[in-house]
Input
Amino acid sequence: MFTIIILFLVILSVLVFVHELGHFLVARKSGMRVDEFGFGFPPRFIGFSKDPETGKWKIVGAKTDTLPRTIYSLNWIPLGGFVRIKGEDGQGREEKDSFASKSGWTRIAVLSAGVMMNFLLAWCIFSVVFMLGAPQAVDNDADVVGETSVQIGNVVPGTPAETMGLRPGDAIKGIHIQDNKWLETKKISDVQEYIQENKGKEIKFLIERGENQISLSGVPREEYPQEQGSLGIELVRTSVVSYVWYEAIWKGLTMTVSLIGIIFLAFVGLLKTLLFTGSAPADIAGPVGIAFYTKQVADLGLVYILQFAGILSVNLGIINILPIPALDGGRIVFVVIEMIKGSPVSQRVEQIIHSIGFVLLLLLMVVVTFFDFIRFDIFGKLF
Output
């Protein structure tokens, strides 16, 4: 469990750090002064700053707030990073190295740079995945060169499949016939026919999960919703396909662009549901849910961990670009309003709106985390 927590923190920290790195690089390139660029969140453990006169690096104490040069800090809370840009609070409009003094388009570039870095990171990750070799869906009846697997694409909650302990990504390598005899599965129809012939009876699967093979048993339902099936799983036939580097880069790009569209539409649907019904879909996950899924993908191997990190990176980018107060997208909205009306929005009004947005986001996170505890039975496991 400790290893999974470390892996979860590493993935989250890299994604947030890369996001903040985007803000930092574009701000510096645009002539803005960056007061601090930190790895992790305060309190500060130690900081470093380069003296422009001597060119030497000096240690900065934990209580030092601002220097005439950038402080690069390591902080105690290992959850990503942050960047403090001069004038991002709207002050210093007369000073040329201030965020507030720059043109609207320059500020939009800085605010959106974190999102673009998350998308770029996802592109890099998916490109590596395609070079290493990733499972891809193939036609059930197609003749494929190389080994194929029947994998579980989805497990419906509350079904016999969930009771069995089946997970998305599991490969069904065999079905139990009698005694210690197993029949190798090569096509989806092999598994489907086995389930249909044994409704109401115990069945056993030989499951490959990462580098481990386990046996799981359960009883398919005789009566069930038509869209769920007797066991409650979606199956896909896969084959591991790898690409040369230039093809992998192109595949990584198309994968990233496709995911951006899919996840953006999903978030728009989520926001509509929240605004018009006041409820959130049951499958939305918070930090606890993401940690739970991290454990599942960790059991499947490196390629799945990388794919998961790439998907999370796209999610983080899209969340931040949405026009929600306190997020990058919400701040961009105020810059656009200023460009249209020709004068800045009242800093007091903007700060109040961002504060309300931040509080609402925290409340949403608390609610989602609470339901994560219920869905994954964290209370039962703790007590």
In short: The longest strand covers residues 34-50.
